[in-house]
Amino acid sequence: MSRLFQSIQYGSLSVKNRIVIAPMCQYSANDQGVLSYWHEQQWGNYALSGAGLCIIEATAVQPEGRISFADLGLWNDAQRDQMQQLLKKVRSISPMPFAIQLAHAGRKASTDKPWLGRGQITPEEKHGWQTVSASEVAFNPKDIPPHALSVAELKQVQQDFAQAAIRAVDAGFDLIELHAAHGYLLHQFMSPLANQRQDEYGGEFENRIRMTLETFQAVFAAVPEGYPIGVRLSAQDWFDGGWTVEESVELSKRLQQLGVAYIHVSSGGLHVEQAIQIGANYQVPFAHAVKQAVDIPVIAVGLITEAQQAEQVLQHEQADAIGLARAMLYDPRWPWHAAAELGETLEIAPQYLRCQPHGVKQLFKPFSE
C-alpha cells in the first residue's frame, strides 16, 4: 500500500489518506465576510475530490484581520450559521472532514482582490481600513504603516481567535488550523524583520513567539477537550535577519508540548524583497527539519504536483502528509489520478462509480462512513 493512501491521525481526528487540500483564499466573500455561491460550488468540489482532508481558506477573526474586503470572516454568529448550513450541504454528498484556517492578516490587510493588482487600499478609500501589526513597520514601503498593537489590543486579538474557534466548532468543522505563516499577524510577531517591540512581545526569541503560543493556548482552552488544532508556519523568511528554520523547529517543539495536532510547513511571505528559491519540493527540507524534532504529523507543501513525487516525500519520511493547493485548482480530481497511478482504491461518491477507467483494476469504491 502506498504511504499517500494510508490513514493518518491528526490528534483525535482520523483521516483516510494523507492528501490535504491546503487553504487557498478565494477573495469571493461579500464585504461582510460571508459566503457566496462561489464557496458553495468550491466546497462541494473539494468534498468530491477524494482528498483525505480539506482546510478551507484563511478566515478572519476580526473585520480588520481580513487580507481583503472580499475575505471570509468568523467574527459573528451570522457567519457561523451560514457556514454551518453549507457544511450540512457538503456532508450530504461526502463524509470528507473539513477544517478551517483561522487568521489575522495584520499589516498585510486592507488590500484589493489580487487579480486586480492594486495592493493596499488606504483607510480613506472604500473597502480600506487602518492595518495593525507588532510594530509600525510596513510590509511594503509604499504602504501606510500599521498601528502597533498595545498589549491590551493584542490580548483582544487572542480572545477573538478563541471566540472564532468556538464558532468553528459550533459550525461543525472537524479541525482548526491557526495561520502563523505567510507574513500575517502571528508571523509578524515572530519575525524580527516586522517585530521591533521593546516589551515582553518583542526582542529575543522567547518574546517573539509569545503571541503565537498564547493565541494557541487561548484557542486550545476555548474548544472541547481533545478537539484537534494544527498550526501553519512559514519555516523561514527568505531574507537575511528574518525568521529561521531553526526557530521554526524550536517553536514546533513548544507547540507540541502544548498539544498541537500537527505542524503545516510552508515558508516566506514576510518581506517584500524575499528571495525564494522556487523549485519542485523546495519547501520539503523545512518540513523534514521539523519532522525530525517532533512526534506529531508534519504536512509538507510547495510545488508537490505529481503522485510519485508526493509518495517519495512520504516514503523518505520527510513528512507525514502532503498539502496540495494550486495543483488541486488545476486538477480537482488529483487524488483520483494519483490513486490510479499508485495502484490504490479510492472511495468516491457512488454517482461516479460508472467512470471506472477501462482496463484498470478496481480503482473506485463507494464512500463508507
TrEMBL record:
Residues 4-341 form the NADH:flavin oxidoreductase/NADH oxidase N-terminal domain. Coiled coil: none annotated. Gene3D superfamilies: Aldolase class I (3.20.20.70). Its cofactor is FMN. It comes from the Bacteria. The keyword Phosphoprotein does not apply. Keywords: Flavoprotein, FMN, NADP, Oxidoreductase. InterPro entries: Aldolase_TIM, OxRdtase_FMN_N, YqjM-like. GO terms for molecular function: FMN binding; NADP binding; NADPH dehydrogenase activity. This is NADH:flavin oxidoreductase/NADH oxidase N-terminal domain-containing protein.
